[in-house]
């Protein structure tokens, strides 16, 4: 049976992740907590807005209301990477060769490993940012679509248009597809070789969490009473195919998803604090955690695929060991 090591923290958990296999919890108040030979924390920001794991560089990247971009290591050391003044850092992403990118206002910033920074201006606010898994390329989610840039080269960006507010963005692991979350409770995608559209609709709530299976064959999403898992095995992605519904519960919405790093199953978090795992092949479910305080906001696996870290809107956080 899975065992849960709870951690009661004072407020909304924005991102939970394993940094060098050490559980970290980044809270909206700007503190980052970690479980390393006991419970420790650092006061990183005056209000934290976004965070992401940079797994290759073994650091947590954070952005705040204070306009600062930081890198936090498993030993608690904090490295300042940028300060944009009074503008919030709304989104952040890690890329190849130690590069990172973030959005503040209408500007997308890319910082290369040597410290050089390149800016890309947009007509509307940068809502989401992501690196392509192939080459030095970024995607920016914005109002009425997405924009693609090659930061290391000079040239015109690629504009992908679709009416509506696009709030988040992700590339498929093979780099063939781009998917955005939308304010209109839908996903929208593009097949990048020909800019063909992919509409993924029918969600009763806004999609706030996306996760690709390890080989990119599936894309799991929140925003419904089940985890909605879209098939991406074919050259046209999910077009003409129905998604799977994993972990269906009539009385609670799925609020967070995280695909296992090696196998095709998904950790699923709910609005009532429950967490379960479901296997894609046969939809078999295993309860990982009973309902708790607050909706699950974030889930992540460790590298071995044996532990899951979770956080909630009410600071009801912890680590699940699936082997017990």
UniProtKB/TrEMBL annotation:
Gene3D superfamilies: YVTN repeat-like/Quinoprotein amine dehydrogenase. InterPro entries: Apc4-like_WD40_dom, Quinoprotein_ADH-like_sf, WD40/YVTN_repeat-like_dom_sf, WD40_rpt. The lineage of its organism: Bacteria, Pseudomonadati, Pseudomonadota, Alphaproteobacteria, Hyphomicrobiales. Keywords: Repeat, WD repeat. SMART domains: WD40. Residues 261-322 form the Anaphase-promoting complex subunit 4-like WD40 domain. Pfam families: ANAPC4_WD40, WD40. This is WD40 repeat domain-containing protein. It comes from Aquibium carbonis.
């Amino acid at each position: 049976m899975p065992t849960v090591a709870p951690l009661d923290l004072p407020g909304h958990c924005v991102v939970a992740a394993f940094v060098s296999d050490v559980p970290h919890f980044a809270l909206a108040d700007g503190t980052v907590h970690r479980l390393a030979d006991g419970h420790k924390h650092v006061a990183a920001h005056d209000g934290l807005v976004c965070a992401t794991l940079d797994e290759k560089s073994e650091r947590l990247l954070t952005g705040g209301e204070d306009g600062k971009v930081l890198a936090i290591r498993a030993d608690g050391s904090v490295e300042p990477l940028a300060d944009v003044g009074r503008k919030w850092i709304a989104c952040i992403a890690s890329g190849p060769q130690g590069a990172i990118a973030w959005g503040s206002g209408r500007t997308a910033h890319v910082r290369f490993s040597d410290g050089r920074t390149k800016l890309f201006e947009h007509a509307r606010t940068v809502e989401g940012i992501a690196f392509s898994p192939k080459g030095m390329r970024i995607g920016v989610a914005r109002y009425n679509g997405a924009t693609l840039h090659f930061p290391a080269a000079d040239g015109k960006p690629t504009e992908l248009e679709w009416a509506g507010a696009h709030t988040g963005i992700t590339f498929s692991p093979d780099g063939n597809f781009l998917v955005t979350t939308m304010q209109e409770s839908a996903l929208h995608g593009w097949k990048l070789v020909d800019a063909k559209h992919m509409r993924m609709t029918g969600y009763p709530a806004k999609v706030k969490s996306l996760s690709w299976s390890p080989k990119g064959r599936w894309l799991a999403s929140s925003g419904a009473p089940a985890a909605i898992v879209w098939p991406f095995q074919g050259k046209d992605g999910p077009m003409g195919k129905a998604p799977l519904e994993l972990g269906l519960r009539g009385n609670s919405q799925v609020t967070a998803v995280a695909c296992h790093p090696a196998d095709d199953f998904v950790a699923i978090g709910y609005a009532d604090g429950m967490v379960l795992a479901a296997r894609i092949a046969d939809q078999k479910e295993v309860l990982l955690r009973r309902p708790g305080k607050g909706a699950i906001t974030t889930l992540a696996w460790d590298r071995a695929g044996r532990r899951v870290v979770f956080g909630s809107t009410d600071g009801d956080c912890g680590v699940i060991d699936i082997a017990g």
